[in-house]
Known about the structure:
The protein is of the alpha+beta class. It contains 11 helices and 35 strands.
Amino acid sequence: MQHKSLRLLGFLALAAAVAPGMPAAPRPLPFVSPLFGDNMVLERNKTNRIWGWTQPGQTVSVEIAGRRAVAVAGGDGRWEARIEPPPAGGPYTVAITGTESVELHEVLVGDVWLCGGQSNMNLGLGLVRNGADEIKAADHPELRLFMVEKHPSYSRTAVPQGSWKICSPKTAAEGGAGGFSAVAYFFARRLQETLHVPIGLIQDSVGGTPAETWMSAESLAGMKEFSGQLKEMDRLRALGGPEYGNYIMHWYDQYDAGSKGDAWAAPDLDDSGWKSVPVPGGFRELGVPDTPSVCWFRREVTLPDPLPAGKSTLFLGVIEKMDTAYINGTWVGASSWVENPRAYSINAGVLRAGRNVLTLRVFKVKPDGGFLAKRGDLRLELGDKSVIPLAGEWKAALSVDARPPHPMPLGFENYPTMPTVLYQGMIEPIAPLAITGAIWYQGEANAERAHQYRVLLPSLIGDWRRVFGQGDFPFYIVSLPAFMHRRDVPGDDAWAELREAQAMTARSVAHSGIAVTIDTGDPDNIHPKDKKAVGERLALCALAGTYGEKVVFAGPTFTSAEASKGAIRLHFSGTDGGLVARGGIAGEFSVAGADRKWVWADARIEGDAVIVSSSAVPDPKAARYAWQSNPSATLFNGAGLPALPFRTDVWPGITEK
């Protein structure tokens, strides 16, 4: 397992969290699902299903451009009409008549793409390279956007939340993660430039989420490693109550006295009976120096009047294992990403002139856990960059002594990580909408379980295809970009294995493909800003694989290897325009002999092949390329597309020729 010395990009990082809260009260089932509304795109050349709810047995008619379909509501009140769309283009008006009458205006007919994954699919247009300029230029009235609201659920959800919007500088910037998905936007813009048809995008993504959250219980039931989690899901479903989609919040509800109604975070709490402790530190004074525990810490700070203008930030440094921060009783941030220094942006109105109460809940797991930062790392930075030091004396109280045999949570992430919760809450509610296909940017959260991902990702694709009921629709995968700092010694690597699992899926699953992005990463940021290349390479996959356009859509792809006089000759497809070594050196190749010890290799290009060798390995048996999280990947084709990382690793060796 690799050491993860990572930097967080604000609230978008994998371990970032959204303030926990109780679920909204159930809403009445609407006459027409919110998935169908003004400004939407209907799928061209395919039967479209439109649905909603009314009284059982009631007849509902749907009309568009002289076409009409009739549906009868079933015993559960759900009706579903199947209608053939008019020609691509528009705008059209859809009339839906039954116990109510609804008209949908500015409806276009074109292609609809489902855009799924975690935070890199979620990353908004305003936060990418040249984001402000891209937002200003995002005036594309035939590009329509639907963002599915985050909704973990422990049972099937009927109604999605969201609305269709016409792409404009205003709507492209809307959304909590910097606007609409940048990857999806660049994907659609490239399609439109070539196809000249309306494109509808459905953003269905949540940061930090592993693949299993987007899968069905039926698929996961066959994987024994998820049996304990699925049983816990069943238990929580039976109990009722909040559906957080994670384990830690349920654990807090059950065991943490301080979280009952956020009582210990209340600014008017009488903490006169709490102990005075030093921070960093404090756990020894509370009697839990070496044992798992949940402790609460409080401190008052006095701020000037008036408060300095600008954004204020709470810095807490590195904390093991999980922290939750409140100011004046308001949640301001939480994280279980141990290596990440905490930096919580404080919303306007939270701080006030005069007395302020800071409250921290820290769940320490390791004997040397808790506050791991230097004293200077704990501070409150005001809008004018003035600093209030926070190291020193705090009030503290022990809430949970979690030493064995006290139960521990199954996970510490406070965002959705439980199996099936987003499939049930965010995929099933939008099916069986007629779509062209799906694009998928995910895998970071599964990188340490790459071998398992070989099964998870194909199963996920199968789940989505079954629930939408439209056959093997296209499914295009983003191969993870470079991340973390380059290692000087070749060897095994979790991120490389995850990319391999993605590539294996693209090869083995019908009508799927992969967009290689190994050259777009950032060693210090898990959310690289170059999303234009990602979206456009996905579009190349779709243009070639779905639309039959004659475009180069893939870079060099390893096909076979042969031994040759103390070297290995590697053959490639996808060499359009010839193999190219950027910078003049074909780097990041390694070889190993029968001892399976990897060393860097010299590489030279000969036609559509690369010859690799090393004086340290006279009889090489296997080769690898770009086999680490952040390789110096320099092999491209003449069309400018990077080679897919790979390994041969055929033991004991390659047949001599």
